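Task: complex structure prediction.
Instruction: return structure tokens for all chains below.
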Amino acid sequence: MERGELTLKGRNLVRTFGKGKNEITAVNDVSLELYRGKVSMLMGPSGSGKSTLLAILSGLLPPNKGDVIALGRNLWEMSEFQRRRFRQQNYGFIFQGFNLLPALNARQQLEIVLRWGEGASAREARQRSEEMLDLLGLEQKHHLLPEELSGGEKQRVAIGRALIKKPSYCFADEPTSALGWEHGKQVVELLTEAAHRQEATVLIVAHDPRIVPYMDRVWNLRDGCLAEANGDGEPTV
Amino acid sequence: MFYVLAILWHERQRFLPGVLAVAFSALLIALQCGLLLGLFSVTSIPVDRSAADIWIGAPHVLGVDLGRPIPGRFFSRLASQPEVEPPEYYLQGFNYWTKPGGGSQLCMIIGGRLRDGTLGMLRVLPRELREQLTEPNSVVIDKADMVRMGIRKVGDTADIMGNKVRVVGFAERQPSFAGPYVFCSIRTARPLLQMLPDQTTYVLARCKNPDDAQAVVDRLRRYDDMTVFTTAEFSLRTRMHWLTTTKAGIALGYTAVLGLLVGAVVTSQTLYSATASSFREYATLEALGIPRFRIAWLVLTQAFWIGILGVLLALPVTLGLALVAELLSVHVLLPLWLLGGAGGITLIMAFLAGLGALRSLRFIDVYSLLR
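Output:
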């Protein structure tokens, strides 16, 4: 695989939960590298530590050991305030449960991120939001509330919301698990397309092997240990 | 602002208790204070319904109904002031009214000049009634007081301190505070109030130019054997005396504060639970780069709008209830400053409730969205 610029590096990451006899190692000495414009997938069964690793890499959960280097800066050596700011400026997230604000229509879901996050003007926010929704195939749905959208459409709005501020990184936690395969496939295609176009570093956590063919790189996590996977999503070692 | 209003409208069922709580608080404050003002405005009616600009009474007099006899010679002190028109005597005081059928009732005797242009409260009586009062020992009472004074018709008689008086007519809409009014001439009033011929309770005067009243009052204050007031001062002094003496103000104020507390708690809880239940959405916004202060501001703006909506809802209800009270002969005074003050205090309360609800922001944890 052709590798672009190295943008995120996890080194010897360890994370445990509980103490003494009840201690569980969720992430066990994991190292990985992610590249600009590439979509990587972290797969594994439930409880394998995927979400914990995603949280560590995205600056939400501190590791017991190890470093995360993002854009040349050690994420876990920053102060809480600096890390939060870094995250706000550079990270986009897509969550399993969409988490759209029920009162806002599709366009406003994106606008609010630009207006309150970047301080964009109403006009600019509207224009950029409409462009993004059009790119995601939601031309006719700008005005609809979440309750009027299908599951796939909601997740597309969530993707648009995560990518609207052109983040350097996009982390997606089980973005297709609440969708049927038809919608799930569309969502993955749109996400990978948008990531490539925006040159974002994308890490998707999922356990559905059907999305493996769309990925640039696939990692398999079992019992907290990481291995690079083959095209079937199976570990190569 | 738009996002806040959109959320409020979409979640209106959730926010409704907060709006109602604010409305309840504003209503309670405005109505309690309005009742209080209305109640105590009755105490100063003899002052407020006079045409005088200046009042001279006994030293340290506390209110219009607590006047004591003063020498009639004080008349000349006022008459000698170039700014005033000819002064007049005005008698007012409590005594017991013995009903024709037995039993007694405390009443307020008001005696004044009967001619047109009289300065005292007798000016509220139509000329025909005042003319009838020229007959010695004739009195007029308010129609609303007939039952409690044991009077059924014109011509009925009663007794005040051994003096037989005859009711020659009825006044209308002259509400009294401590005892019903008994209007009569100065000559009739003196024996009823056990005053000597050269005594009065007050000397009243009107200024040629009402703006001069304060200057005349200031000049006359050099006399320490009498008290001088402008009409506005005496009205306020009378109300404040009853307000502080009866402690009714404290009692009503206490319930108003209670209403405010109930409003604050309900509003705060409404906002708290609304925010707590949306923590996933807010955590997502935070994950997407929206700073925490923006979300805090969202909650505070919601509080502000809940306050505005509550006050707007309270306004017509307050006015409606005040109207109902008036129909029941309960006087409620709702000046603009009171409505504005009640609204302002309630808005501050809503804003403070919003501040209290900010503690719910601790639920916002982006990591929780990954678990």
